[in-house]
UniProtKB/TrEMBL annotation:
Protein name (Swiss-Prot/TrEMBL): Helix-turn-helix domain-containing protein
InterPro entries found in the cross-reference section: Cro/C1-type_HTH, Lambda_DNA-bd_dom_sf
Coiled coil region boundaries: none
UniProt domain HTH cro/C1-type: residue ranges: 3-60
Amino acid sequence: MTLRDMRDSRGDSIRLLAHRADVPPQSITRWESGDRDPHRMRLDTACRLATALGLSLDDFWANL
């Protein structure tokens, strides 16, 4: 599963997820496109994304 899959499963747009997680939309776009490796994101960013997606941090990392 990818970040895009997790986002799409909730029906969230990039902008909505970015707003909920307090992350620039460009960062989400880069992780989803492969321009940036999502496994190298900062822990605090991963925590915010996991929360915004309704996942535990463990589930977020396992699905990434």
